[in-house]
From TrEMBL:
GO terms for cellular component: cytoplasm; nucleus. Its cofactor is Zn(2+). The gene is APOBEC2. This is mRNA(cytosine(6666)) deaminase. Its EC number is 3.5.4.36. Belongs to the cytidine and deoxycytidylate deaminase family. It comes from Balaenoptera acutorostrata. Residues 1-28 are annotated as: Disordered. Homotetramer.
Length: 224
């Protein structure tokens, strides 16, 4: 990710990765986090806690975070008002298809015209330009689909191509938001593996609110 300039209006967030409870920045843990076989899309219902703490943390610099994690909730409503819901997560290696594209290829390759779909994504970082284009094309041809995209971080937000892609997403009807602290807590409770027989409470990192405000302001400026 390119260098970002600090401004008086919005101070850049601090990473403080070394303060994670299980220290995912430790080289031994980092190796475990980032070394997966290439060209692989991983799917499941719940992701490991150390993956969440490292990959979803809303830091400014994404060093070592060479994947996209996408947690999804799909609600399909019939004309009679009945709702079918499903959830899960995907993670990718950036050498292969990205998680956003994999969602439409594997999780929802087709849409029933008799149903209305409300899809919510919680992604570790916002889409690249190519994935944004895939989302736009899908939304334009699928009128019964509504997508809410909540991102922990903005991916290369200073690049004009990325800014244009985010604006196209908005124009196509995608609702874009930066994840608030309560959104991270929701992901922790609903998409992260818990110890058997117990549910550990979400422990926010020190700069979670500061970093949310930083990215929220950047996104608002881009979407003006």
């Amino acid at each position: 990710m390119a260098q970002k300039e600090e401004t008086a209006e919005a101070a850049a967030p601090t990473s403080q990765d070394s303060e994670d409870l299980e220290n995912p920045e430790d080289p031994k843990n980092l190796k475990e986090l980032v070394e997966l076989p290439p060209f692989e899309i991983v799917t499941g219902e719940r992701l490991p806690a150390n993956f969440f703490k490292f990959q979803f943390r809303n830091v400014e610099y994404s060093s070592g975070r060479n994947k996209t994690f996408l947690c999804y909730v799909v609600e399909a409503q019939s004309k009679g008002g009945q709702v079918q819901a499903s959830r899960g997560y995907l993670e990718d290696e950036h050498a292969a298809a990205h998680a956003e594209e994999a969602f439409f290829n594997t999780i929802m390759p087709a849409f029933d015209p008799a149903l209305c779909y409300l899809v919510t994504w919680y992604v570790s970082s916002s889409p690249c330009a190519a994935c944004a284009d895939r989302i736009v094309r899908t939304l334009n041809k699928t009128k019964n689909l509504r997508l809410l995209l909540l991102a922990g971080r903005l991916f290369m937000w200073e690049e004009p191509e990325i800014q244009a892609a985010l604006r196209k997403l908005k124009e196509a009807g995608c609702k874009l938001r930066i994840m608030k602290p309560q959104d991270f807590e929701y992901v922790w409770q609903n998409f992260v593996e818990q110890e058997e027989g117990e549910s550990k409470a979400f422990e926010p990192w020190e700069d979670i609110q500061e970093n949310f405000l930083y990215y929220d302001e950047k996104l608002a400026d881009i979407l003006k």
